[in-house]
Design a protein that fits this description.
- This protein is α/β, with parallel strands linked by helices and about 450 residues long.
- The chain is about 45% helix and about 15% strand.
- It has 23 helices and 15 strands.
- Helix 15 runs antiparallel to helix 18.
- It starts with a helix and ends with a strand.
Length: about 450
């Protein structure tokens, strides 16, 4: 892009001829967006002519996202990465926050109608989402392909039902809408409540978004997950029927990402993995990627990072030569954590990870925020004691209210052998008094028996 910027002054100085030269050079230098998605495993379907359009001109494309929470989760990342690659390939991305459609709910792939949100909540969620997406897209440059965020509530709030029925509804037949897979699945599936009229109109509303953006933002392409194919193609059809069949609009989708065992991607026993560090700590976020299977790591590093093909192929070969080093998982976890959070958050996550398996200090424990501390020791045996039980010798505490040891004899023997630590510091005297000054964050005492056996004592 820096090279291309050199040609901009030529347009003002020499006129349209040099501007055409600039345009031709832009096209020649533009990376092939479709090929980029294809080798990364991020291409499911596209309408005929889509690739040719993307090679012919700078294309403005949009992708819609759900505003029903104040944070995206990793299930949204494939779509966001599509927009990131789109911008890197010289095209203009628009992310649409569905403020209006979020008040209704999309039936695609769901068995129940979603809860409806008020305007204040939706606006708050939109601002939070933009802050997260800004880490992936450039919203601030002066380039022609600078990213934008829009909210469909802005053009739907004053659109009356009668106007919508007259101007939009007349162009799409009920037969056409009924034929969509998303509608058929709800009608013929196991959902007890069937499909509400509110949800049935969703594809028309999403189709109108495409029409509006086509007319007002020059959007010719809509991106989305493959479960959105029906809704997206309703939009392309609405554009043709409303404006004339000479108006071209296109669709491109990415596959729905699953784990190698076929289960839903991004879900854990504790729920979604969120991009907001207050919902999912960077440590837990990092650990999610670090612990994916070899097969998943090989797929995910293509989908969820911007690493080039040569780098990924080299990492894959290195990983296959010694899978035990988990080269792919480590690089994947590092790249995604830095992109979503920061380099500092990655360093903290790695330091937290080393607490369980490496040589850590009390200072390292104290540097962790409380939620990260709890995440690190999630799953270890825990005891809860009252603050009035402090002030007694360690041997009384750790064999009594917090029964880390079965007997005092066992504890004495392990202390003598150097096998007991409190807050990562060796305990050399079983009679040492445990007081409030020993607590981490004024609440926790970490006992360690041997190298791998941890016990968390919570003081209330």
């Amino acid at each position: 892009m820096d090279f291309l910027r050199l040609f901009v002054p030529l347009q003002a100085r020499f006129g349209q001829k040099q501007y055409k030269i600039y345009s031709y050079i832009s096209i020649i230098m533009r990376k092939n967006f479709v090929e980029e998605l294809r080798w990364r495993g991020m291409l499911a379907q596209m309408m005929p002519g889509t690739e040719e359009l993307l090679q012919r001109e700078m294309v403005t494309a949009y992708l819609g996202t759900d505003p029903t929470a104040d944070s995206l989760h990793i299930g949204h990342l494939c779509g966001i990465m599509m927009l990131r690659h789109l911008q890197h390939c010289g095209h203009k991305p628009i992310i649409l926050v569905g403020g209006a459609t979020g008040m209704i709910g999309d039936p695609s792939g769901k068995s129940q109608e979603r809860n409806l949100l008020n305007d204040e909540t939706l606006r708050h969620n939109q601002e939070c989402i933009k802050q997260q997406v800004a880490k992936f897209l450039d919203f601030d440059s002066e380039e022609a392909n600078v990213a934008e965020m829009v909210n469909n509530y802005d053009w739907m709030r004053d659109f009356t039902f009668l106007d919508f029925a007259r101007e939009v509804g007349k162009h799409i037949t009920v037969n056409y809408m009924m034929a969509k897979d998303s509608v058929q699945q709800r009608l013929n599936g196991t959902a007890r409540d069937g499909l509400s009229f509110t949800e049935f109109t969703y594809q028309l509303l999403q189709g109108y978004d495409f029409l509006y953006l086509y007319q007002h933002k020059g959007v010719k392409l809509q991106l989305g997950g493959n479960d959105q194919w029906g809704n997206i193609t309703t939009g392309t059809e609405l554009i043709r029927r409303t404006l004339g069949y000479e108006n071209e609009a296109f669709a491109l989708t990415c596959p729905l990402i699953t784990k190698s065992d076929g289960k839903k991607f991004g879900k854990t026993e504790s729920g979604n993995i969120w991009l907001d560090p207050k919902r999912t700590t960077p440590y837990r976020f990092y650990q999610f990627w670090l612990n994916v299977s070899d097969d998943d790591a090989e797929r995910y590093i293509k989908i969820f990072t911007s690493l080039d093909r040569e780098t990924i192929e080299a990492l894959t070969e290195e990983h296959k030569a010694d899978p035990g080093r988990r080269v792919l998982q480590r690089r994947l976890a590092e790249e995604v954590t830095v992109m979503v959070h920061s380099k500092e958050a990655l360093d903290t996550a790695i330091e937290a990870s080393n607490i369980l398996f490496g040589k850590a200090t009390r200072e390292a424990l104290e540097r962790l925020d409380e939620q990260t501390f709890l995440d690190v020791f999630d799953g270890v045996p825990q005891f809860t004691i009252g603050s009035d039980q402090l002030g007694q010798p360690a041997i009384e505490l750790l064999t009594g209210a917090a029964a880390v040891f079965a007997s005092k004899g066992e504890m004495r023997k392990m202390v003598q052998g150097g096998g007991v630590s409190l807050n990562k510091e060796k305990l050399t005297d079983a009679q040492r008094t445990i007081g409030a000054d020993d607590l981490i964050d004024g609440k926790y005492l970490l006992a360690q028996k041997g190298k791998k056996n941890y016990f968390l004592i919570c003081v209330k």
